[in-house]
C-alpha cells in the first residue's frame, strides 16, 4: 500500500468515525436503540472512535514502515482534529434538528 493511499484511508475513516455517534441512536453503535441517546453516550462513543482511528493509523504506519514514537503533542493535535471532523454531525444533531 502506498503512503498517500494510507493517509487518505485514515482521513476518510476519521471523518466517518467522528460523525457516527451523532447519526446513530444505538448505544456503542451496536447495542439497544435509545430514542434520545444522552450526550455522555455520544462523547464516550466519540472517544472510542478516536482510539480506534488512532489504532488504524498506527497499524497502517507499521505496515508501511517503521512506526515513529509520538509525544503527547501529537495525540493532543490528533484529538482536536478528530473533534473538528465531527463538527458536521454535531451541527446536524444539536443545532439543525434541535434536542428532541
Automatic annotation (TrEMBL):
- InterPro entries linked: UCP019883
Q: Which UniProt keywords apply?
A: Membrane, Transmembrane, Transmembrane helix
Domain of life, source organism = Bacteria
TM annotation in the entry: 41-60, 72-95
> Could you identify this protein by its name?
DUF2818 domain-containing protein
Q: What are the leading ranks of the lineage? A: Bacteria, Pseudomonadati, Pseudomonadota, Betaproteobacteria, Burkholderiales
